[in-house]
Design goal:
Layout lengths: L1 E4 L11 H14 L3 E4 L32 H11 L4 E4 L2 E2 L5 H14 L4 E6 L4 H6 L7 H15 L8 E4 L4 E5 L13 E4 L3 H10 L2 E3 L5 H17 L8 E7 L5 H9 L4 E5 L6 H14 L7
Parallel strand pairs: 1-2, 1-11, 2-3, 3-5, 4-5, 5-8, 8-9, 9-10, 10-11
Antiparallel strand pairs: 6-7
Helix pairs in contact: 1-9, 2-3, 3-5, 6-7
């Protein structure tokens, strides 16, 4: 089992360089595989679209919460760490132009020696996507096409360059360098709790991250993912599954249960504290509780 950790976003510490450096380095020392960062380009006050992971329909982050750009923050943390994997969870893919994004992601992957993992979503806040100039009704198709563009631009190219023609994006004889360090490009995991997300993971993803989904509901989604992969001529066994948990309540038994369910990675969240020493203590207690091997 791999362990990933999300910093306490609601505490407004994620744009504090000293706080985040200390957090990331402690996670690396304890043996956490990766740090996971969220994204909101903007939050629109009074948004009417329902947040899908809460009965209230409101996300847990306040409207004025500090949410730095995840890729810029990952670039910063790449220089502050040596082994820690750098991940998004999730990047709202349709808000990004994939030609520009392909270069940004490849650059981070090169400079971090192949430590980048991309987890993407289609976005749930209609008002945010519209503020970015995106038609909310097209976000699924646009996301699929963005993934395809990224993979094309990360592929091998000759003197004639690379070409793509789709519904939203089109180019010919394009050269995009550097390429990612990792074979096949930066791994792309699909975040979400819907059957559409599970299908996308099977068709196009390297993994699936349905945080907040458990039991029979998760089993249904995994079946959708596996069937989609098989129909696409892909091997479902090669897809990683990342599920969520809380740092304070996750036990060795719950880790074992997650592994039996087929999870490869557990993404945990700490308490929403601004006290770095307290959060680091929680991380250390977690590492001891689940018997996570420390890295030298």
């Amino acid at each position: 089992m791999k362990f990933a950790i999300i910093p306490p976003v609601r505490s407004n510490v994620t744009a504090d360089p000293d706080w985040m450096t200390g957090f990331a380095r402690h996670a690396e020392t304890l043996g956490f595989e990766s740090i996971v960062l969220v994204e909101h380009a903007v939050v629109i006050s009074g948004y009417e679209h329902k947040y899908p992971y809460s009965d209230s329909g409101r996300m847990p982050l306040p409207d004025q919460c500090i949410v730095p750009d995840p890729l810029d923050l990952l670039s910063y943390l790449a220089a502050a760490t040596t082994r820690l994997q750098l991940a998004t969870g999730v990047l709202i893919l349709p808000e990004h132009h994939p030609v520009v994004l392909a270069k940004r992601l490849a650059t981070i992957d090169r400079l971090s020696a192949g430590r980048l993992r991309l987890c993407i979503g289609v976005g749930w806040m209609r008002e945010e996507l519209e503020a970015c100039g995106i038609d909310f009704s097209t976000r699924g198709r646009r996301t699929d096409e963005c993934i395809d563009v990224l993979r094309v631009l990360w592929g091998e190219e000759d003197e004639e360059g690379l070409s793509f023609r789709g519904e939203f994006f089109e180019f010919e004889h394009a050269h995009s360098n550097p390429k990612p360090v990792q074979d096949g490009g930066v791994p792309i995991h699909i975040g979400g709790h819907s059957k559409a997300a599970a299908k996308r993971a099977g068709q196009r993803g390297n993994g699936f991250q349905p945080l907040g989904v458990h039991g029979e509901e998760l089993a249904v989604l995994l079946n959708v993912m596996n069937e989609a992969a098989e129909r696409s001529g892909r091997n479902p066994a090669q897809l990683e599954l990342s599920i969520g948990g809380a740092l304070a309540t996750t036990s060795a038994d719950s880790v074992e249960e997650a592994a039996e369910f087929g999870a490869h990675r557990l993404v945990v969240s700490p308490s929403q504290s601004t006290d770095l020493s307290k959060v680091c203590e929680e991380m250390s207690e977690f590492a001891e509780r689940v018997r996570m091997p420390q890295l030298s």
